[in-house]
From TrEMBL:
It catalyses: cytidine(1402) in 16S rRNA + S-adenosyl-L-methionine = N(4)-methylcytidine(1402) in 16S rRNA + S-adenosyl-L-homocysteine + H(+). The lineage of its organism: Bacteria, Bacillati, Bacillota, Clostridia, Lachnospirales. This is Ribosomal RNA small subunit methyltransferase H. Its EC number is 2.1.1.199. S-adenosyl-L-methionine binds at residues 62-64, 81, 108, 129, 136. One of its GO terms (molecular function) is rRNA (cytosine-N4-)-methyltransferase activity. Belongs to the methyltransferase superfamily. RsmH family. Keywords: Cytoplasm, Methyltransferase, rRNA processing, S-adenosyl-L-methionine, Transferase. It holds the Pfam family Methyltransf_5.
């Protein structure tokens, strides 16, 4: 059976009672272009209970949130995002379910304080879609994209003052090399850092186009022939630094695992290998937190399992999804489940 979901703007197939993505064109709500990656895989793995408490920690345009809300009756959905534009778009998309939803303008890394403020001790599930959203990439003035000229910004939360401009123009060579190599896994990191330092001696680097030109000069011509855009990894690294994304991700996993009810699920979508490794390792430690030397016959450290890993290998997008949403190509979904503590 094929049905149309007008609210999300796509069609789906249903076979043997299971829904699969069939067509997913771009939709526009309040100028917020949003495509929900691995949507049905997330909904299936959240194991939603109608009376449960769920969190969409990276609400974006509300595509995932909408499907979670549809599955709730007396349950509650907490929608978190640090981007105010996301809240405006999502509230419109979720307008038929507002009685079930609490909106929070914050970073999901603060999940403990958010839940404490809402007087919620335990949850039945949480979804995190890590990284930059389609809207943030497409909105040129936000400065996330290396394909559009804009002021250097890259702030997911525009109420904060620290931006990509400060990273590019105030970090020394060693610091630039550290983040470009560490967060971008860029082999030419040192050379790019040196070229940035040299370029800004005359005047500050103020726009994304100016930074792209510096990077192109730094990366040897032969290395620019194949592979991704030469600025892709550097832009990724600077964005991660500006928003503290990796520290937030690690902290959130630890905190959420302690908040999961037995059987509750944490679903995390990542888009590059660095994030995926963090999630994989953090999940492993929740399942097996023991730090005793391997030669010890029994555990004496006293650390107890808080969750178990559901996905030994990550779930990836189907060919149908990739055909209509190429940005999903690098997406990986991993799932953790709470246990009795």
């Amino acid at each position: 059976m094929i049905e149309t979901d007008e609210a999300n703007g796509f069609k789906i197939k249903e076979r043997k009672g299971r829904k699969k993505l069939f067509m997913l064109p771009r939709v526009t709500i309040l100028e917020f272009h949003h495509v929900s990656v691995l949507l049905w895989e997330c909904i299936e793995n959240l194991n939603i209970k109608a009376d449960g408490i769920y969190i969409d920690g990276t609400m974006g345009g509300g595509g995932h949130s909408l499907e979670i809300a549809k599955n709730l009756t007396t349950g509650r959905l907490i929608c978190i995002d640090q981007d105010q534009n996301a809240h405006e778009a999502a509230k419109e998309r979720l307008k038929d379910h507002l009685d079930k939803i609490t909106f929070v303008h914050d970073n999901f890394g603060n999940i403990d304080s958010i839940l404490d403020s809402l007087k919620i001790k335990k949850i039945d599930g949480m979804l995190l879609d890590i990284g930059v959203s389609s809207h943030q990439l497409d909105e040129a003035e936000r400065g996330f994209s290396y394909q559009q000229d804009a002021p250097l910004d890259m702030r997911m939360d525009t109420s904060k003052s620290f931006s990509a401009y400060e990273v590019v123009n105030k970090y020394d060579e060693d610091a630039l090399n550290r983040i470009i190599f560490g967060y971008g896994e860029e082999r030419w990191a040192r050379r790019i850092a040196q070229f940035i330092i040299k370029e800004r001696q005359d005047k500050p680097i103020e726009t994304t186009a100016e930074l792209v030109e510096v990077i192109k000069k730094a990366v040897p011509k032969g290395a620019r022939k194949d592979g991704p855009h030469p600025a892709k990894r550097t832009f990724q690294a600077i964005r991660i630094e500006v928003n503290g994304e990796l520290d937030v991700l690690q902290r959130a996993i630890d905190n959420v695992a302690n908040r999961l009810n037995p059987g509750g699920r944490l679903c995390i979508i990542t888009f590059h290998s660095l994030e995926d490794r963090i999630v994989k390792e953090a999940f492993r430690k929740q399942e097996n937190p023991c730090i005793c030397p391997p030669q010890f016959p029994v555990c004496v450290c006293g650390r107890k399992q808080t969750a178990r890993v559901i996905t030994r290998k990550p779930i990836i997008p189907s060919e149908d999804e990739l055909a209509v949403n190429p940005r999903a190509r690098s997406a990986k979904l991993r799932v953790l489940e709470g246990v009795e503590k």
